[in-house]
What we know:
- This protein has helices at about 125-130, 140-145, 155-170, 180-190, 235-240, 440-455, and strands at about 35, 40-45, 50-70, 70-85, 90-95, 105-110, 175, 200-205, 210, 215-225, 230, 245, 255, 260-265, 270-280, 290, 300-305, 305-320, 325-330, 335-345, 350-355, 355-360, 365-370, 375-385, 390-395, 460.
- It is of the alpha+beta class and about 475 residues long.
- The strands form six sheets. The chain has a six-stranded mixed sheet. The chain has a six-stranded antiparallel beta barrel with strand order 3-4-5-17-16-6.
- The longest helix is centred in the last third of the chain and has 17 residues, at about 440-455.
Amino acid sequence: MLSSFSVWSACRRGAARLAAATAVSGLVATGALVTAGSAVAEELPQSQGGATATIGGLKTYGDAVIHGDDGDQQVSAGLFEMSVDNGGMLQTYCIDIHTPTQKDAKYQETPWSGTSLQANADAGKIRWILQNSYPQVNDLAALAQKAGASGLTEQDAAAGTQVAVWRYSDGADVDAVDPQAEKLADYLEKNARSVAEPEASLTLDPPAVSGHAGERLGPVTVHTNADSVTVTPPAEAAADGVKVVDDKGEEVTSAADGSKLYFDVPEDTEDATTALTVQASTTVPVGRAFTSETRSQPQILAGSSESTVSATATAGWAKKGAIPALSAEKDCAKSGVDITAANQGDEDFTFELMGTEYTIGAGASRTVTIPLQEDQAYDFTITGPDGFEKRFAGVLDCETQGSGTGTTTQTVSEPSPATAGGTSGGGTDLAETGSSNATPIIAGVAIALVVIGGAAVLFVRKKQDSAKD
């Protein structure tokens, strides 16, 4: 796998296994009520929901060699391990061979449309490889027989699988060093067939709704692979009589995939917004992508324990005027971020975006794409009347770096961090996975410059009536 930030892509020897999450299977809704006059900007997630995890070390791995115009580069290839927030473990392979992995970076489950897989015609073959190799297939004898790789070890299986993934995720000319791992990589590459993108473990659609006090706001549809879910309303909102109900107006205590949730807001409730967070315990589907807002190497899921997943939806209401609902999602097909603005109020909602003015009529919705450069950090704050603010921040990471980026990687003639003073697949040595220690420094400086020079602030205003109240 690729190296983590600087020398911090350490992986320590151990026999850690995927641990079952202690969270009870179900969906739990929580939230906070914010008055319309609050001037605090709310940072909205760029993901529609799912698992959030912290990456650890490269756990089970062997060696591989990348062949390029500048010579051969020896790297470590295998499985990373990530700890899921609130319980659970994930195993992943990387899908960007020339990008470093930062130690302890936060990752979020992400649809393929928000990653380099969006434009990759072979993305479905990568999922087939994950479904038909280690660790999903843990009978190494059977896997070895299919691949003609006698004596296949866990380290060989992880290295061979990663190499096969790289050949499709990056189009890389890469070989496994161990002959058995190379045989597995060749077998997987030759037999891979396109498989559809897996559904998210948990999402709420749409992630933002709005309307008048005295109405039911929504629906917000639950999409999950959990068998059953439970729902509790936001405590602060519940104190003001706001309830989470179904399409019949009955308060919700349980829900399932496809359930539609509404915010039932009493007519005399003060203008405000609330955030609803839903959680479930489930296994994340193999093939789900994971990205980090710190430009850490993208990952793709190879295995999951029972893990805690979550999604967030916001609701805003008022008695009159424009009532916007804002959400954002990365769109790699358009090389930017889609900001969707819906207005369920009785007045137009007008805002300026990158020098262009947009008006969302009462009861209308519009999606505006903010074009960005690859690897560009962004930080947009949309402001409106009565202290209305919504913030969208992140990094656009839609392409693999490729081999012509000028980064320095470990060469075959140099001692491999995976074997210097230790052995592949274990030891306390740091394991590099494609980039030298200089690579993350270069990347970090580049991102810092983008943040300084490329961040934008978006200003929103509501059209005012000629006569004030």
